[in-house]
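Pinned message: reference record for FAD-binding domain-containing protein
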Amino acid sequence: MSLPESTTVLIVGAGPTGLAAALSLIHHGVRDFVIVDTVLQGQNTSRALVIHAATLEALNTIGCADELNDLGLKEENANIRSRYSKIFRVDFNSLNKYTNYAHALILPQPITERVLEDKLQSLGGRVYRPHTVSGLSRNKQDSTITDVVFQDGQIIKAKYVIGADGARSAIRNIAGIRFADPDGEDVSKSNLLSQIVLADVTFADESGVPDAGLNMITDSAGFFLFIRYSKSFVSMLPEYEGKQIIDNVLVDKFGPVSSGGAPPLKIEQVIWSTRFRTHSAIADRFFTRLGAPSDVDLNENSGEKEGGVILLVGDAAHIHSPAGGQGMNLGLRDAVALGDAIHSHINASQSSSSPSPSLAPHPDIILQTFAASRRARALEVIALTKSLLSVLGMKWGQYMRWCPVTLGSVRDCLLWIAGRVGWIRGMAAWRMSGLGMR
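Predicted structure (tokens):
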């Protein structure tokens, strides 16, 4: 498919984050954009399944929340359990004083992508597929424009390039932006689970499945997460003896123990599975100009500001463990905020280039402020997911010194006590919902 020769905004990546960025641009009146993706069509696997309240609120501002909310399952609670009984309940219903979305919305990622892409098409937009970026360079006639080169030899000239192309972002890598754990940690050398398995599965008999849609089952060797959607389930498990595909050995070792005469859980079909590393990383910069030094002073009108705008959102900007279902949510909120930032930057740039420019600050400060704000939110989410992983996924099978009790048992006991306090249940929901990290 032939690409346009030029555009104001080029969005690279048409997953949920890229699509939401396009919709946010349209909402703010920016229609001169192109969105491309490297695959011919979106994947039909669940991956991200939970949309939290803060994300639904953000999507609502660009007219995209209602259809998603109608299609998904609304869970008012998430349970932390041992293999035998409930321990702690995250009470999303307690958020009804602060949001119209006092629930966790269970909706597989392919449905989210379809809804967003259908919305984009209804507004006159389209996704160009398949196109893979292979290079970035400054345009020779105008250094504030980026020539984006694709593997098939086509070139798009763009004033703004948005990298929404995932954890292995070509835009981030070609722009030379560092991507590393903010704490400098090596999870493979820590006590945390270094890898987990994620899968879509169905069970032969559902009578032994926990009753709620969201269940995190703790164990001395890790945790097992059920997220129920219709007759399909997504299960998250610690990697066990090198296994990458979920099977009944894993379910027998980490899954819930049936009660009341229910038969043991048996997997009927593994629809899809993959292995995730639980490491975290964040880009040093979410905004830069191609070729500009990282310490440029945007208050000075110097040649250092030259170079096309490069922006990172979603997994291209930050990654972390799937604990708490935060990844896609954070990316969607990045994308919604980006539309307003670009719209404001375009208007400010036009004003500053007028014959009688005002003494207003440099327009790039708008993008710098956006990037700093989103990076701060990402650091908060990374800290949250590390805390969740340390509680749910630590290898706590060893016994306490001088006491025949495992650390895992102590953890479960403390969670059970905390779960008796409504304020703590509500605070857990507040943190997981993203309402405090918008």
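Pinned by admin. Summary line: The domain at 6-72+107-184+280-390 is CATH 3.50.50.60 (FAD/NAD(P)-binding domain).
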